[in-house]
UniProtKB/TrEMBL annotation:
Belongs to the AfsR/DnrI/RedD regulatory family. Keywords: DNA-binding, Two-component regulatory system. Residues 271-282 have a biased composition (Basic and acidic residues). Pfam families: AAA_16, BTAD, HTH_77, TPR_12, Trans_reg_C. This is Winged helix-turn-helix domain-containing protein. PROSITE patterns: OMPR_PHOB. Residues 1-90 bind DNA. One of its GO terms (biological process) is phosphorelay signal transduction system. Residues 248-297 are annotated as: Disordered. It comes from Streptomyces xanthii. One of its GO terms (molecular function) is DNA binding. Residues 1-90 form the OmpR/PhoB-type domain. InterPro entries: AAA_16, BTAD, HTH_77, OmpR/PhoB-type_DNA-bd, P-loop_NTPase, Sig_transdc_resp-reg_C-effctor, TPR-like_helical_dom_sf, WH-like_DNA-bd_sf.
Length: 1087
């Protein structure tokens, strides 16, 4: 039987003949069962699907009649009774895409097969075959039925995504003369999809229609601004710039210079195209994940890959074990990519690889490392207050992943196997949709673990790998000498035990020795090279022998460079290699040539880095080179040069991170994260503390900008143990401790111990920033004033700007609107002149809030959009969420409920993915506000109660009680409205913020306006007058767009009292003191 849902519902038998399914309700029953994809649908659910709110008499019997009719049409055994419901029996006869009974399943299978094809022309053809299955919108004749809506939307979204992929494959294969024209109608139907827009722009450009490509970008930019208040993503903007400058890379590829867009992401934070693999991924990327691109095809692993893929479908933890060099990492990456490709619609959060080679520490440190890879920060926007005690790194990781469908690839777990096992067990227990794929030389021994022993390659596969690598190293190479050369290849592969790394290291020798010469040399050498190591497993002896041989064939300068490279972690730049590897017979000017020779011998890999080429050792080679380094007298000197180089780098970056080069230097330090960590470990291990103190202090600003607050606290604690008397370290430790809510040291007299006045001011300012985030406003203001005085006295413009920005934030939280506006504007101008984008972001919240309070919504939106763009560029995920919530609030004020809901929901998703509770509370509050204002009172009430349980905070709870009071008032429940607004009133007094107090008085006025007699109406007018006075006391009368509640209440009171009596009572209310108004609110009218 074949079922078609990609269009109107059709049924055909095995011969392809149509099967008639009589009557609309029977067809609806079949569609409802097909939506479940073979799962059971309860009887009650099916009755609701078929008849909705108007079920027939004896509905169970009516459903049974429809089931009988359906069975007669498609076969009795096809509709199976199971438990309290029914399911559709779906049978695959021969396996494979073509035998799937439902065309939607066949479509997804064909797409998965196409995605596995590397040739773009063939991939395009296969995608086209999948698209040909579509006959119209999914479940077209059930478009209005609730049971089909979600499935239809999901399938239609998948279709558009495949249309985008199909267009990209056609463009990549060169099939572009007609493509640009064909894309026009598709873009018209989906005008906000950036991936589609990108391929259209490239197709137009390659068709010689540059002006139309630029016009397409301009049209999208205008639409995003008008409809969502957003800008095009950085990737699309980069493509636009490439078209403007007629970048030659656009001529022959379907990809943009910055990497192809793969989804709509007009306002989605996204990764810098050159960001390093392991340190700064996007928070909420269009195509999530950081799997490295394969530079060569995976050979000989089809069976193993299929086995791993099968296990990943059955077990949530799969561990690949085996000796070093057997190919565990490469197989894991291929399996992870297949996992993300085969059903990407259900795995939206992608696969992330965390490299653990050379790492050390416990599960807490490992959790922080994983969080860094996933882009999960542990900071707040603009020093925003925390909600409760801060979570530990592992807890924050759990919070961030709880709603995500993520595959975590933990590579080289043997270095931290106990910590990896502990963290993996915790995550699997706590994160329902998480899967973990690990590589290790030993299993993790966690419950539910599926272990796969990765074996060496089979002889035929080993020969294929060797031939491919030898051909790459020696163009024109081939076993052309007949049977002897073929036998020599087989002999080489057999001697190397089919170990992939050994084969790759040996293959380049063909260029000098030929394949027979290589086989002979291996035969001669192995007897010597493997002797004396019989205690090691045979395959490890084989690999060691090959690396030994490669080592012995190197010249002395090459050996020096190789062993010194081992001190680096995650590779190094040429500058670093020259600084660390030179000396002892190697000139710095010779290092590049020596590196090139090592690359040609497959001992060093070249990878793309944030600022250019990086040189990296494979893990097995790195371990070997490290052993060789320890054998030599220059081991300590090499580590010292590595430390000094990275100390100079950090100290240089510390100043540059506060100016126009901020983004570039962030990328530099991000790429060197592992090296900086290793350098700091080395510094802390030394008896003298000076270098560790300097390096730790220099890294603090980078830690703050990257949201690595927990790491900062841990490192500062260690540095202070080595140097307890250093005043700057004490202040920095105190500042980060206040930000994270961890125990803070005493800093009495510490400032006097910092001789440099500018450094002293910056340390004090950081203390003020930390105190602000801890809600200690008085201490924050005092520390900030002391810092500003130092900055002004010693001419530090950055410091003055930072102090003014923090004063503006103080004004926002204390209601000092004049200071907020004055100091915020000065700070924004100063940061803009300095080119400090992070600093500019700090001024957005207070200035946007001031514009909103003043009713200048256009200015507020400009501020929010500017902040959103800057925050996305810098990867400040909490700030991105805050700006999205701010734009959502403005949409609420404009009465645009759908846009407000969309923006707040995007903010909520981002905060959940970051484990950022304060931002999540703000976004969910916005959703609740929108629900109440659009009339969805039940939804609003449910959201507000949920937040009261999960996000306790004085300011937030005040607003939620006020909103709950308005919900009750709108329902006409006076007593409940009074109870809720009185709770809000008590919290407003604790906040000492006049606008919060005014909101509670307005709510109480609404409750009083429901009273039956004139006394209650008069009290309502008094309360409205007192609220108006409270708002005007801080220069913030209620703007027109925010008067909806007050105008409703006023109209109700006027209808009873009349204009004259209302005005008299209102004016008396404006003369009341806050205490009198509060007392009036606490003693409501009886009845």
């Amino acid at each position: 039987m074949r079922y078609g849902v990609l269009g109107p519902l059709v049924v055909r038998d095995a011969a392809g003949e149509p099967v008639k399914v009589p009557e609309a309700k029977v067809r609806a029953l079949l569609a409802a069962l097909l939506v479940r994809e073979g799962r059971v649908a309860s009887t009650d659910r099916l009755i609701d699907d078929l008849w909705g709110d108007e079920p027939p008499g004896r509905p169970a019997n009516a459903l049974q009649a429809k089931v009988s009719q359906l069975r007669r049409a498609i076969g009795r055994d096809r509709v199976v009774r199971q438990g309290a419901g029914y399911r559709l029996e779906l049978v695959a006869v021969d396996g494979g895409a073509e035998t799937a009974e439902v065309d939607a399943t066949r479509f997804l299978a064909l797409v998965a097969e196409a995605r596995a094809v590397t040739d773009p022309g063939e991939r395009a053809a296969r995608l086209e075959a999948a698209l040909e299955l579509w006959r119209g919108p999914a479940y077209a004749d059930f478009a209005d039925e609730e049971f089909a809506r979600a499935a239809a939307q999901r399938l239609d979204e998948q279709r558009v995504a495949v249309l985008e992929e199909h267009a990209e494959a056609r463009l990549e294969s060169g099939d572009d003369p007609l493509l640009a024209g064909e894309l026009a109608s598709l873009v018209a139907r989906h005008p906000l999809r950036e991936r589609l827009r990108a391929v259209q722009m490239r197709a137009l450009y390659r068709a010689g229609r540059q002006s139309e490509a630029l016009a397409s970008y301009a049209e999208l930019s205008d639409r995003l601004a008008e409809e969502l208040g957003l800008d095009p993503s950085p990737a699309l903007a980069a493509l636009h710039e490439a078209i403007l400058r007629q970048d030659r890379s656009l001529e022959g590829t379907g990809r943009s210079p910055e990497g192809a867009l793969t989804s709509d992401a007009g306002s989605t934070p996204r990764q810098d195209a050159h960001a390093p693999r392991s340190d700064r991924p996007p928070s909420h990327p269009a195509v999530p994940g950081n799997l490295p691109q394969d530079l060569t095809p995976l050979i000989g692993r089809d069976t193993a890959l299929a086995h791993v893929a099968q296990l990943m479908g059955e077990a949530r933890l799969v561990t690949l074990t085996g000796p070093g060099g057997v190919g565990k990492t490469r197989l894991a990456i291929a399996a992870a990519r297949r996992w993300t490709d085969t059903a990407s619609a259900h795995r939206p959060d992608g696969a992330w690889i965390v490299e653990l080679a050379g790492r050390h520490g416990d599960a807490t440190e490992l959790a922080a490392e994983v969080a860094a890879v996933l882009g999960i920060r542990d900071d707040s926007p603009t020093g925003a207050p925390r909600l409760g005690a801060p979570p530990a790194p592992a807890e924050r990781l759990v919070q961030a992943l709880r709603e995500r469908h993520v595959l975590l690839v933990l590579d080289n777990c043997e270095h931290v196997v106990d910590a990896a096992a502990e963290l993996t067990a915790l995550l699997l227990r706590s994160v329902p949709h998480l899967r973990v794929l690990a590589t290790s030389q030993e299993p993790l021994a966690v419950d539910g673990e599926a272990v796969v022993l990765v074996e060496p390659l089979e002889p035929a596969d080993a020969r294929a790998l060797f031939m491919a690598r030898a051909s790459a190293a020696a163009p024109g190479f081939g076993p052309l000498g007949g049977d002897d050369d073929l036998a020599a290849v087989a002999e080489v592969c057999a001697r190397l035990d089919g170990m992939p790394l050994a084969l790759e290291l040996a293959a380049p020798r063909v260029r000098a020795l030929g394949v027979r010469g290589l086989a002979d040399r291996l035969g001669d050498r192995f007897g010597l090279l493997t002797s004396g190591r019989r205690d090691a497993p045979a395959r490890q002896r084989t690999l060691r022998a090959v690396i030994d041989w490669s080592w012995e064939l190197l010249g002395a300068p090459e050996r020096i460079v190789l062993r010194r490279l081992a001190v680096h972690r995650d590779g190094c730049t040429l500058d670093a290699a020259e600084a660390v590897c030179a000396g002892g017979g190697v000139e710095a000017s010779d290092v590049l040539d020596l590196l090139t020779r090592l690359v040609e011998r497959s001992l060093v890999a070249v990878v793309a880095g944030p600022t250019g080429v990086r040189y990296r050792l494979l893990e097995t080679v790195a371990a070997y080179a490290a052993d060789r380094l320890e054998e030599m007298a220059d081991a300590a000197g090499t580590r010292d040069r590595h430390l000094r180089y990275h100390l100079a780098l950090a100290e240089d970056a510390d100043g540059r991170l506060r100016g126009a080069d901020q983004r570039r230097w962030l990328a530099v330090l991000d790429a060197e994260s592992a090296n900086l960590r290793a350098a700091l470990d080395e510094a802390l291990a030394r008896p003298e503390a000076a270098v560790a103190t300097r390096l730790t202090a220099s890294l603090c600003w980078w830690w703050l900008l990257r949201g690595r607050l927990t790491e900062a606290v841990r490192r500062l604690e260690a540095a202070r143990k080595a140097d307890p008397e250093d005043g700057e370290l004490a202040l920095l430790h105190y500042a980060f401790a206040r930000m994270t809510g961890t125990p803070a040291p005493s800093v009495e007299g510490a400032a006097e111990g910092v001789p440099d006045p500018v450094r002293r001011g910056r340390a004090l300012w950081l203390c003020a920033y930390g105190e602000f985030s801890a809600n200690d406003m008085a201490a924050s203001a005092e520390s900030n004033d002391a810092a500003v005085a130092l900055f002004e006295a010693h001419g530090d413009p950055w410091g003055v700007a930072a102090g003014l920005a923090l004063r503006a934030m103080h004004g926002l939280f204390t209601g000092d609107l004049a200071a907020l506006d004055r100091d915020g504007a000065l700070a924004a101008a100063a940061f803009r002149e300095l080119g400090d984008r992070w600093g500019e972001v700090q001024t957005v919240a207070p200035l946007a809030a001031h514009a909103q309070i003043m009713g200048d919504y256009a200015a507020a939106e400009r501020r929010q959009r500017q902040g959103l763009k800057l925050a996305e560029e810098l990867g400040l995920h909490a700030e991105v969420a805050a700006r999205l919530s701010g734009l959502g609030r403005l949409a609420l004020l404009a009465g645009d409920w759908p846009r407000a809901a969309e923006l707040h929901e995007r903010a909520r998703e981002l905060t959940v993915s970051q484990g950022y509770r304060f931002g999540q509370a703000a976004a969910e509050t916005g959703l609740a506000l929108g629900a109440r204002r659009s009339g969805a009172l039940d939804e609003a009430e449910a959201r507000l109660f949920s937040m009261l349980e999960r996000f306790a905070s004085p300011a937030g709870d005040h607003l939620r009680h006020a909103e709950l009071g308005f919900v009750a008032e709108l329902r006409g429940d006076r007593d409940l409205a009074l109870t809720r607004h009185l709770r809000g009133l008590e919290q407003a007094f604790g906040l000492a913020e006049p606008r919060a107090f005014a909101l509670s008085l307005e709510g109480l006025a609404g409750a009083e306006s429901l009273a039956a007699g004139p006394e209650g109406q008069a009290r309502a007018a008094l309360l409205l007058g007192a609220a108006d006075a409270a708002r005007r006391s801080v220069g913030a009368p209620l703007p027109e767009a925010e008067r909806r509640d007050v105008d409703r209440i006023t109209a109700r009171v006027l209808s009873t009292l009349g204009e004259k009596a209302f005005r008299a009572a209102f004016e008396r209310g404006t003369d009341m003191t806050p205490q009198e108004a509060a007392q009036l609110g606490r003693t409501p009218t009886a009845g």
